[in-house]
Amino acid sequence: MEQKTSVVASILNATTLVVVVALALIQGVQGIGIGIGVNYGTVANNLPPPAEVAKFLSKSTTINRVRLFDANPEILHAFADTGIEVTITVANDQIPHITNITYAQQWVKTNVQPFIPKTKLIRILVGNEVLSTANKLLISNLVPAMQTLHTALMEASLDNSIKVSTPHSLGILSNSSPPSSAKFRQGYDTHVLKPMLNFLRDSNAPFMVNPYPFFGCSSSTLDYAIFRTNSGVLDDDTKLQYTNMLDAQLDAVYSAIKVLGFEDVEIVIAETGWPSVGDPAQFGVDPKTASEYNGNLIRHVTSGVGTPLMPNRTFDTYIFALFNENLKPGPICERNFGLFWPNMTPVYDIPIMKNTVAVVANSHCKSFLSIMVVLSLVCAWI
What we know:
The protein is of the alpha/beta class. The protein has helices at residues 2-31, 50-60, 73-78, 95-98, 101-111, 136-155, 188-203, 213-216, 222-225, 245-259, 287-301, 354-381, and strands at 36-40, 65-68, 85-90, 120-126, 163-165, 167-169, 173-175, 183-184, 207-210, 233-235, 240-242, 267-272, 317-319.
């Protein structure tokens, strides 16, 4: 009798473990896409109407955030009542004008107030990768423009719901390897980024970056760049091991922020992605690799694992881009970062379609129930 009791207890313990694991798997699958956004660029002549895009994203995908590179009123109207969070952008050439409070107030009246609350606006980005332009006029006016726009939002009682920030390329770093030693470029660090970080902290807005492992990898580091199994890279200073390039890039940004004393400011990934088509000489540019990178990216940033220097975190992430944009200048890859073709069919498989997520979750449920039935029969037999 004691032997049977011991066997039953062991089976029950195993059953409990199976329940915990199965539920974790199901929760993980259902969580895919949570907090995932997409950059909605429009440099193309073959894109579907914004109303169709908004309906498609809200009904058929798990994407719940969209970033626009302007403040297109047709697109803003299209996202009304969808629940999708929208970020809009002040164009770089408008930055000097936004430093004028009257101009900023009018900008808010024209580009924000007519669309809320039906359209869920959450951020206004002042320019894009402004420090990388090397334009002294834009750079010197960047933080004042952010502050003035925030003041205009305060006057309209919108500063709590709509935050002001600006995205940066990794070119703002003077070095990024090892991640723990990273610093901002001299000159920009104290004159631009320190007052900017102070503003972001005071207004509870995020520091936004555009990390692209695609542009930082070589043929020998492709596995490291797309989250495949690899030998990893050791930070000799901290003895922390990095298994993917994105973590290293994010931790480099975090280290640079920490040097200035603002490590409590949230980091948001404003852009990252991988092209599915490129020039013949480019390696790792195909639909399979793009699918791997973006699929693994989604799983990683929503997992709660975080990075070696920022453990137990999730990161709001905006994938570049929603569509392949056929009028973008530059190399072939620039026109092929899209998740979808203009007819809204996927360029490749990625876990953002609601029916796909539901099928995978359902599969886990069926497997879990099958295991439970077998264990129940074993217990009954004993």
